[in-house]
Amino acid sequence: MKYAAVVLRNAKNPALSADFPAVTDELLSGGVFLDEIVLLPYDAPSLLSSALLRLSAEYDGVFLVCDKMLLPSAREALGYTAERPFVKEYLLETENCLYAALPAGKEGAEIVKTETVPAVDRRRGCRFSRMYVCTVGAPAEKLKKAIERAEEAARGKLELHASEKFGCARVEIIYHSETPKMTADEVLRILATDLEEYVYALDDVSVAQRLFDCLKLHRMRLSTAESFTAGGVGRAIVEISGASSVFFEGLNTYDGKSKEERLGVSAFTLKSKGAVSSDVAYEMAAGLLASGNCDLAIATTGVAGPKPDGPSPVGLCYIAVGTKEKVRVFRFHLEGNREKITSTAVNLALFLAYKEIK
Q1: 200-211 CB burial, b ≥16 within 10 A, e <16
Q2: Of 236, 216, 209, 241, which Cα lies nearest the Cα of 224?
Q3: pLDDT tens across 333-358, in order?
Q4: Dihedral of the CA atoms 180, 185, 190, 191 (nearest 10)?
Q5: If both were cysteines, with which of 19, 64, 116, 175 could 112 make a disulfide (CB 3.0 to 4.6 Å apart)?
Q6: Distance, CA of 105 to CA of 126 (rounded, Å)
Q7: Packing angle between helix 140-154 and helix 181-194, nearest 10 degrees?
Q8: CB-side exposure of 193: number of CA atoms within 13 Å?
Q9: pTM, to two decimals
Q10: Distance CA 327, CA 189 (A)
Q11: For residues 14 and 26, what is the distance between their CA atoms, to the nearest angstrom?
């Protein structure tokens, strides 16, 4: 069966366009593979009508993604194409085609998961299942080679869907009831083995959630001292329900004096090594542990940009992770804009902390 999507966007200001990747990714996760995606301006009804008429004749499912405020117009356009009105809020089914009017973003993704994919499964008479391999910090080339090996082993009997954001890569193994279990298991084994040092989960969870679960299991408490990540590491943990059971405190020690007074970082270290250094990261983490209030410490220091900090280039960062027994410091040189650098560093810090206590 073949499926297509139409995305209504703001052609004059693409930055304000609908967030459709969340919806299309959820379709892929449900085994609904799009053969065509058509991008159209939201204010061109004639173009939309022509596209819908063509797609409805060529495909078994047509999904229209748009901003929530445009949903009434979207339903009207799809109803005109199908020659019948919507009975359900988001789905319209005819004998030959399934239509869906979906809001962009997380809301639309949830509708896809709970309504659209089940409707597709009923029409095609099979249900797709998924397995996951979630990683942090895997080099692009290594990830690519692992996927290529897995696809070779799959021999076309299942689908792999990879996505990456801020250093976190998730590979979905999508298969249906006719897929031999041995094939799916072999694909999972290849990915988990080839990417072993970067894997934090074989289910669909965030790295923050995995660290939280590990802290809870070991009855440990976490403290963070952050410089350039601006509290992002601590925020990722406290956004999880029940975080108070594992999180003691989070300090944003931007200024050198703050590092000295709140964490006990040596003035000599700051002057001789610089704020962005492995020595300072180490002393930041050691200062948290010395308080006696935490079992695990994370410290970050770096340059997020847009300008270098003296001799330290944009993207250089140090992440210290440790327990009362030892503190390790990791050096990274990250690429991208300010948001990408800091968000990637946050995910790396969470991952390194997980590996320290798993």
Answers
A1: bbeeeebbbbbb
A2: 236
A3: 999 999 999 999 999 999 999 999 99
A4: 110
A5: 116
A6: 27
A7: 160
A8: 8
A9: 0.83
A10: 32
A11: 22
